[in-house]
Amino acid sequence: MASKALNRRLFFAGAATAVTAAAVSRVAMAALPEPVIQTKPDTMPPLVPKTGRPYNPVITLNGWTLPWRMNAGVKEFHLVAEPVVREMAPGFKANMWGYNGQSPGPTIEVVEGDRVRIFVTNKLPEHTTIHWHGQRLPNGMDGVGGLNQPQIPVGKTYVYEFEARRPGTFMYHPHADEMTQMAMGMMGFWVTHPKTKHPLIDEVNRDFCFLLNAYDIDPGSKTPKIMTMTDFNLWSWNSRLFPGIDSLNVRLNDKVRIRIGNLTMTNHPIHLHGHEFLVTGTDGGPTPKSTRWHEVTADVAVGQMRQIEFLADEEGDWAFHCHKSHHTMNAMGHDVPTMIGVDHRGLVKKLQKLVPDYMVMGERGMADMGEMEMQIPDNTLPMMTGSGPYGGVEMGGMFSVLKVRRDQKPGDYSNSGWYQQPPGTQAFEWTGALPDPARFKAEGQGSMPLAASPTRTTQVQVRKPSGPMAH
Ligand SMILES: [Cu+2]
């Protein structure tokens, strides 16, 4: 008897719970789409649309696309602004602010003409807004806190709604305490696909996108410094650093588009090896065909977006990187005196009396740094690292690889490993005799005669490297 009564009581308790849960979720679901959270920093497969007009979805490098809910013909998204922990590279995590579990936030993909409703829930410790960079929309939806709308207070949810009027490449970011919120990683990508065949927008086989961002995180620490204006030490793509940035894996003869947005405080000349590309679009829309010419480097200025397109018709592992050499370095590439050609012998001992732990860096260049067994603080990425099939790649930061493969299947975005060089197609060591250098005959008779070389004096200035990584 006792057990029967207990069972009945449990049954009623269960029923009551079920009813309550159903009522809550029905109300919640009718009003607000459940936020989707991403816990991994990996490149997620393209999100093929199940509702609405079809399109060829993009691949977000080390990112993902936010699923939506179709509600009476409106595409509904739910962004949650919140503190996140972003793995910037294996072994290095940073405390950031972002959206739905990651920095940057998820990519939003819609189709020209779509009505879009975005719920933005603020779980940050301060107010925020979202500005939809590059969009045509009603002024009150533009997201500049104080100017177009009140700030979204902590704990509140605001709704943005507009029609995606023109196709193209866009981004989103806060327009509230921008210096802090963007330095902390709040940003995301937005792609509006054309609804019909567009004369200036080609169909492509692969469509990649990522944001350029930069952080200042002291070696050994985890939180970006928000006051930094120019001297950032981590240059990232989608808050990832080489060797943590995934490669762009394509099939031989694929037509490839790469969309890039810059939310750092300096320009980035993005350079692709082995192919020539056209700049086919900006955040202002597709570029007229008459303005397109072939390049191998496209400068992406601050607050700009560029989309580049090319035919991937050369097999191999092709470097793809920012051409500013300091941007393909991780922390510690800064505040180090140049010591190339300086003979340190004897000097080091003297210096170590003044500066204990003084270490010689770069006597023959900095290449040794790639492999040097140097003690670095926990949660710090070496300055230049990453190994390839032939040794250290000696890169960091804004660097990745375009992998063009004959046997990559259509729709397969997986990494096929290192390229096997066909025999006879790789640089090799010359082992024959080296002839004496021939002197150029016209020496001293040209337009710039060489001055008689005076006795050269070399001034060596020694200074103690500053910061916590002083050697
Ligand atoms: Cu750069």
Defining traits:
9% helix; Immunoglobulin-like; five-stranded mixed sheet; 3 helices; binds copper (II) ion; 471 residues; 29% strand; mainly beta; seven-stranded mixed sheet
- Number of E-type strands: 23
Tell me the Rg in angstroms.
27 Å
Largest sheet features: 7 strands, mixed
On the 0 to 100 scale, the average pLDDT is: 84
Q: What is the helical fraction, as a range of percent?
A: under 10%
Based on Cα principal axes, name the global outline. Answer: globular
Number of domains: 1
So what's the CATH class? Mainly Beta
What does this entry look like structurally?
- This protein has 471 residues and is mainly β.
- It has a single domain, classed as Immunoglobulin-like, CATH 2.60.40.420.
- The protein is built from three helices and 23 strands.
- The strands form five sheets. Strands 1, 11, 12, 14, 16, 17 and 19 form a seven-stranded mixed β-sheet that branches. Strands 2, 3, 4, 6 and 8 form a five-stranded mixed β-sheet that branches.
- Strand 2 and strand 3 form a beta hairpin.
